[in-house]
Amino acid sequence: MNSVLFTVAKGGGGFVTFLFFVIWLVSVVGLWKIFEKAGKPGWGAFIPIYNVILLLEIVRRPGWWIILMYIVPVANIICVFIVIFDLAKSFGKGVGYGFGLIFLPLIFYPMLGFSDAVYTPIKREIVVQT
Fold it and tell me: Is there a contact between 85 and 122 (Cβ–Cβ < 8 Å)?
């Protein structure tokens, strides 16, 4: 039985690990450029929780959303979709581009980071009940 899983178990996992590393690196470099366009430190793309905090700042969502994104089941999926669609909107892109960021991040994050798209912060109105 010569399956891919058997090959990885025998020690052929080096290529798979390398492939995942390359995919991660390309996505993070794209995110680095996105952060720089938005006036945030680009190196923050490499720090696991800090990069989500920076992303929330870019799309102007409250910082406590990090709890929803990391701890609350089902809400985390919804929040990630909202943040990614807000990210696309912040750079003047539409819903289709948001789906591209979700399903093809290896292509769309670098495209957004290295394109001539300009960051325009989303205006959020705070409604106070009196």
Answer: no
